[in-house]
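Subject line: Sequence and fold of a protein, written as structure tokens
Enclosed: The protein record, placed directly beneath this head.
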Amino acid sequence: MAVLAAAQLLDELMGRHRNTNPNEKIKKPNWEDPEYCKYFMVKFCPHDLFVNTRADLGACPKVHDDEVKELFQRAETSYKKSQYVEEFLRFCRHMISEVERKIQKGKQRLELMNSKPEGPPMTQAQTEKNQEQVKLLSEKITSLVEEAEEAGTRGDVEQAQGLMKLCDRLKDEKDQLLKQQENSHWSMTAELAAAQEKQMEVCPVCGAFLIVGDAQQRIDDHLSGKQHVGYFKLRHAYEEMSEAREREQQEKEKKRREDRERERERSMRGAGGAGGAGGGLGSDRRDRERMERDRSDKDRERDRTDRDKERHRSVREEKGGRHEERERERDGERHRERERERDRDRDKERERERDRDRERKHRKDRRSPHERSRRRSRERERH
């Protein structure tokens, strides 16, 4: 990254062709070359907005050239130029969405910090009374447990069970009193902390935490900071360009409607006018206008088809890459499975061969000497 920043600095000082030989032909700049930054040509590069801040995007890997930017601004409207603008708007929209989520999380955090615990805090007299009740309940629970143990020792099971149920109810009542006392303690602590803590708010532009009623110098420092200025510039550029695109689309639609109205009026005048040569001239003019309109419609349709093809090609390439990777994984898994099956078949074949050898050996051992002698005699007779 440091090398890239140094190269950009040298480009600004000595020019992009600083390493070109004297006799070498210098290539003319073209804004369609992939080495130039699209964002910089459209408006500005977001990588330059948040340098040395928490939202730093790092150095831009593309080339920033004012001459190329001027060529882009002077170029006629085309599909590729509109794609550059659309990509810049998409990047701005992504960054604005991220900071909006940050602002929402900051507001939720402040709401959680400023939320008050349930119930008002208890007074000193109420706290002392609560402690006395807890002490009495503890003594009563202890005595009931002793009585239940004595009843169980005597064999009076029913009395022991009744005493234990009463003991459980008293324990629940004691737990409620302790919980009420604990909530009162936390409520007093939260009120004391809220009184000592400064009130905070979230900046609606960059999502930073600010102190309500802070000194004007600190507020001015925040408003002039890189992060706040960068997000403000992003929002302003996105809103401005979005409104310009909407106005352009509305003007195109209005012009299209006016053209249709004029064409309708011409056709009505041509139908109601005199025949003969005049009718032939009007018909020729209408034919030419219709041909021009059809040609413009075909151009728009061709541009739309090119955009769809480019989009489908990118989707197919992405899907094709994932599909090839999955196919390679499946082929590897199938090859490994076949290897495992071959190993299992070899093991089974070896086991069957060992079984056959053991069986032949066992049969050979089971033959009696008399049978072996008779077999040898038969063989001699045959020969």
In short: Strands lie at 200-202, 209-211.
